[in-house]
Amino acid sequence: MANILLSSERNSYSTDRPYTPLNAPELQDIISHINEEHIDELLGFLQVFTPISTAELNNIEVRLTTVYAEGIDIQVQPKNVEYQSIMAQNQFEQSQTFFIAFADSITHPDELQVQYIALKQKADKKLGKKTIKLTKQVFDVQDSYRVSKNMLRLQLSMPIPSNASKVERAASVPTNEAGYAYLFDLDHNALTQEATADTTDSSEENNLRPARSHCYYTLRKAWQTSTDMQALVDVFLHGDTPGGSWAQSLQSGDTVVTKREFPEKTEHLRDGQALLIADETSMPTVARLLELWKNPKPPLVVCVTQHIADQRYFDAVKMRSSLDGIDNDNSDTDSDCNTESRKDDHFTVLPIVTNQANSGAELATLIDSQLADYLTHKSLQIDKVWGALEANTAKALRPLLKDRLALSRTDVVVKVYWRHD
User: Fold this and answer.
1) pTM of the predicted protein model
2) Distance between CA atoms of 207 and 205, rounded to whole angstroms?
3) What are the tens digits of pLDDT across the range 92-139?
4) Quick one: which of 11, 14, 212, 231 could link to 156 by a disulfide (CB 3.0–4.6 Å)?
5) How far apart are CA 31 and CA 220, in angstroms?
6) Which residues are CB-neighbours of 75 under 8 A, at least 6 positions away?
7) What does the CA dihedral 126, 132, 135, 140 come to, rounded to 10 degrees?
8) What one-character-per-residue DSSP string does 98-132 give?
């Protein structure tokens, strides 16, 4: 039996030095967010930076407790009574705290993100995982048009240098990844508009600045031509939002700038019966996931929209099947050739139309209830879940799904894609 936690004599990672606590009111919200949304990353830190083994990770609960100028504290305790009893018999502590050091010390919470990302990049590299890229990319806007009632599609392009190698071309924009997100710099376009605006009113100039300086949007699809990379980005227009206003203001010939790239975690969906849950903000991720599907079993898709007309978004999506023996990871061709011409689009969509903004715990209860009715009538057993919703909805839905489907936290991935302000 593996020792889930280390004895105090063996734990050289505990907080036994006078580290410098950061005292800022926003820190508690940051810590709570990481504990709610980024447990997998904390587990990765423990696996890479401490002696805790991969096998032991499945039997512990973890949480971030403290942020210091020099690093972070992660508290670890046994997951259940059985393992607590084992450790008590072996005179191990019921919980322990591991200190993970930053590469560089910080003095303010605003600096935490840079050091946290650096830890994640180092851990992901050692674990062989895809990770965040702090890369600036510049795209040209080719066109924009509606693909459903409230979904605006941006068609973008990026020139490829004639001397670029095959590896460099493939790395510039990923053509075979689902849920690959770009952090778009909204201020870039606001500053461009300010520079070209014919106005002497400083208040009018300030009105051009978005309330948020950046937004994440998923890469809906990308493909390579002989001269450039083509990309589609779908933006859901829901009210007067910074991202929606930015997308609608773009004209052919404009440039858009991205500051960061983030790969979605969907590897757990490669086997078993999958359930995908999307609202309007995450439908592009699910659509691309279906086109690149690697699981022999077609998924059940729960699609939540405010308007019934937006349910049409999936009508043109063709699901590829791993039964055909095609491995998209090794394909250098335009992904359209492998998806839209296929006929195996037999995924099932369970539509939920709310006629109101899709957020809050009440929506989580509605999704759980509708899913329960469907599973009862279809006698379907769900093995894996991926979904992305509003923050309060995601938080409320996770425990409901775990209880209903009797699945572990690693098999129920429900992400936060937006927050209802």
Assistant:
1) 0.81
2) 5
3) 457 899 999 999 999 999 999 999 999 999 999 999 998 999 889 999
4) 231
5) 31
6) 62, 63, 64, 65, 95, 96, 97, 98
7) 140
8) EEEE-SS--SSGGGHHHHHHHHHHHHHHHHT----
